[in-house]
Amino acid sequence: MTTRPTLPPAVAATVSGAATALYYALPDVVPSRLARGWVKAAVVTVSLAASLPGARAAWNQRPEGQEADQDGEGTPGLTTAFRAMPAGKKAVALALPTAVIAGGVGGMLAAERKIYRRGEARAAAGKRLAHTGPALLYGLLAGVLRLVQGPLDSR
User: Fold this and answer.
1) What is the Cα–Cα distance from 105 to 19, expressed in whole angstroms?
2) What is the pLDDT along the chain (155 residues), one digit of tens a residue?
3) Which residues cross the membrane (predicted)?
4) How many CB atoms lie within 10 A of CB 96?
5) R_g of the chain, CA atoms, integer Å
6) How far apart are CA 5 and CA 21, in angstroms?
7) Which 3 state secondary structure label does DSSP give 1?
8) How big, in percent rounded to 5, are the helix, strand and coil portions of the chain?
């Protein structure tokens, strides 16, 4: 199996931090809501593309004992157990993760609205580049979290 190169941790942290800062600072730079949506989509695409090699490498790493042997046989995993469940139990097993994901998305949307409204209130109060100051803080935080993530993943 060939391994694909991943970004060095410092580069990944820089890309993540810069993308986050740009994403949240856009209302100061791009006045049109439609244009801002397209630029945000491009920023998210670049950020995801930068993190894809690392995510793929992590996905391909399996815990010891889970790798299949040459005959394709291996230890039964979660997928095998899930496939063996009756339909009713599958629905129950999927309900909790679905609720958690839905709650996370809803919470993120609420946080994004609050961040935007706070920036707009700062702009209305006469603050120049009202969204950019907090955006730089969010970008720094994202970069640091991304940088710290590397040593945690290597354990």
Assistant:
1) 19
2) 455 567 788 888 899 999 999 999 999 999 999 999 999 999 999 988 888 877 777 777 755 545 444 455 555 677 888 888 898 888 888 998 999 999 999 999 999 999 999 999 999 999 999 999 999 999 999 999 988 876 555 55
3) 6-26, 91-111, 132-149
4) 9
5) 21
6) 26
7) coil
8) 75, 0, 25
Reading the block at residue 25, the tokens are 């600072």
CA 103 to chain CA centroid, nearest Å: 16
- Dihedral angle at the C-alpha atoms of 34, 114, 107, 144, nearest 10 degrees? 90
Tokens of 86: 């009756």
Helix (H) or strand (E) holding 21: helix 9-29
Tokens found for residue 3: 């391994």
Q: Which residues contact 17 (CB under 8 A, 6 or more apart)?
A: 139, 140, 142, 143, 144, 146
Domain extent listing, the chain: 9-60+85-153
d(CA 21, CA 109): 17
